[in-house]
Design a protein that fits this description.
single chain, mainly alpha
């Protein structure tokens, strides 16, 4: 009976050693996967932050350009108002005054509508450009989830 017990004990010890070796191997694999996942998560989040920074740069540059364009418009408009005042003060009759005033109002309205259209186009373009880096990150996230599924 001792030989049987001894053989069983040796077999059990051998199986236990194999079992723990297998557990150690699987734990090492899981740790490596965890490290790899953590590194990928850091890179992924870094890319997200870079996309937001890029979008912010685009907004700042676009706002600066829109502001510059609007300041040029204001300057030009101020010069045109000065010319209009000179024209109005040089008018000889009330009929000419009313006629000139109507022309100036029409011109002012057309200019305001044109500038409003330019501003709207610039804002739409800016919004599109601003969301492009973020849109790219959304596409990358979608692709990541597709691969994970």
């Amino acid at each position: 009976m001792t030989d049987t017990v001894k053989a069983t004990a040796e077999k059990t010890a051998e199986k236990a050693t194999e079992f723990f070796a297998d557990v150690r191997e699987k734990a090492s694999e899981a740790a490596e996967k965890g490290k790899k996942f953590a590194a990928e998560a850091v890179e992924f989040n870094k890319a997200n932050v870079e996309a937001v920074v890029e979008a912010s740069k685009i907004v700042a540059k676009g706002a600066q350009e829109i502001g510059k364009t609007n300041m040029e418009f204001v300057k030009k408009n101020f010069e045109e108002v000065q010319v209009a005042v000179k024209e109005l003060t040089s008018v000889k009759s009330p009929t000419d005054f009313v006629k000139l005033q109507g022309e100036l109002v029409r011109k002012g309205f057309d200019t305001a509508v044109a500038q409003g259209s330019k501003n709207t186009e610039a804002m739409v373009k800016l919004a599109s450009e601003m969301f492009q880096p973020i849109s790219n990150r959304i596409a990358a996230t979608t692709e990541l989830f597709k691969k994970a599924a």
